[in-house]
Specification:
This protein is of the alpha/beta class. The chain is built from eleven helices and 14 strands. Bound molecules: 5-S-methyl-1-O-phosphono-5-thio-D-ribulose. The site of 5-S-methyl-1-O-phosphono-5-thio-D-ribulose (MRU) has 19 residues, from helix 2 and strand 9. 5-S-methyl-1-O-phosphono-5-thio-D-ribulose (MRU) binds next to helix 2 and strand 9.
Length: 352
């Protein structure tokens, strides 16, 4: 199966529902869900049925469009107030990936700027805005892929953490986009190491599934094996995605990313963050300001196990993301170019 045929989040052909691939069922089953209600879309984002920062943004944009369709408002003020309420509900689904609030703000902005139009026309333009968020994301991923491919030498070993592939975006992914670009260019020389990414195993369940389906030389490792894999000389470069990048280059990504960055620095391996502009939050100065999602203990103790694998009642911490210091980052691959330190200046030069 070609993983690029999978759709993480899209509007149905009749325009009446959001269709998402339920990623909690992968790799065992490819099943699509058709969602119409705001609360069901919030549940799907919260439960990681649709996940990955850009895909969450696309799902939320269509979620807001569907909510707008249902609003039975008498005038524009009433319509905008209902729209803001729906956006607030969707925005509460997850806190760390800035793409969620970015996509919702963009949708609200489009409605507010056109408040002089009849409500029916504003509803129609919200669909076009959500479509634009999705199609722009595809183009951005392609450009990140093209730029990332330029960093890859023949036979390189790439280590990645979590899933920043086609499943996490509208198409192509961010950290995996250079690998899809390599395949398109006929290159089969690359090797990819996927961290399994405890506790939710996005690396094992999603990245390994995606890359193996695409015919890439894929090796799954436990998170704790990254150091020996690097020490054995198997990793030439690290590509990871991100959920929110601050103005100084500190960034949040799936829990465990900062450890990979520290290891890469130790072994002298270049560490690149693949960052679409929708993930760059110039409103936050540094990493301590990023809200970190805390998730239920059961995800650590039993979710992926036939039997609970920890004693009942044990204290559990389950932060879903960590923050990597900008000093550990070689560069950010954005659609505007590769940003090198000092990142605050590079981001400003790119117009972020
Ligand atoms: O909790 P998740 O699975 O949504 O976390 C996803 C990640 O951390 C990804 O690396 C990030 O969103 C970038 S996806 C292109």
């Amino acid at each position: 199966m070609d993983p690029l045929t999978l759709e993480s989040a899209a509007l149905s052909a009749d325009g009446r529902s959001l269709v998402i691939l339920d990623q909690t069922l992968l790799p065992g089953e490819v099943r699509y869900l058709s969602l119409t209600e705001t609360e069901d879309i919030v549940e799907a984002i919260r439960a990681l049925r649709v996940r990955g920062a850009p895909a969450i943004g696309v799902a939320a944009a269509y979620g807001l469009y569907l909510a707008a369709q249902r609003l039975d408002a008498e005038d524009m003020d009433q319509f905008l107030s209902g729209l803001r309420q729906a956006a607030e509900t969707l925005n509460g689904a997850r806190p760390t990936a800035v793409n969620l609030s970015w996509a919702l703000s963009r949708m609200l902005g489009a409605a507010e700027q056109n408040r002089a139009l009849p409500v029916a026309q504003v509803k129609a333009l919200l669909r076009r805005e959500a479509d634009a968020i999705r199609t722009e994301d595809i183009a951005i991923s392609r450009e990140i892929g093209r730029l990332g491919l330029g960093l890859l030498r023949p036979g390189d070993g790439i280590l990645t953490h979590c899933n920043a592939g086609t499943l996490a975006t509208a198409k192509y992914g961010t950290a995996l986009a250079p690998i899809y670009a390599a395949l398109e260019a006929g290159r089969t020389d690359l090797r990819v190491y996927c961290d399994e990414t405890r506790p939710l195993l996005q690396g094992a369940r999603l990245t390994a599934f995606e890359l193996q389906s695409a015919g890439v030389d894929t090796t799954l490792i436990c998170d704790s094996m990254a150091s020996i894999t690097m020490a054995r000389g198997r990793v030439d470069i690290v590509f990871v995605g991100c959920d929110r990048v601050c103005a100084n280059g500190d960034f949040a990504n799936k829990i465990g990313t900062s450890g990979v960055a520290i290891l890469a620095k130790h072994y002298g391996i270049p560490f690149y963050v693949c960052a679409p502009s929708s993930t760059i939050d110039m409103g936050l100065a540094r990493g301590e300001e990023i809200p970190i999602e805390e998730r239920p203990a059961e995800e650590v103790t039993q979710l992926w196990y036939a039997q609970p694998m920890a004693p009942a009642g044990v204290k559990v911490d389950n932060p879903a993301f960590d923050v990597t210091d900008h000093g550990l980052v070689t560069g950010f691959i954005t659609e505007k170019g590769i940003a090198y330190p000092p990142f605050d200046k590079a981001f400003r030069d790119f117009g972020f």
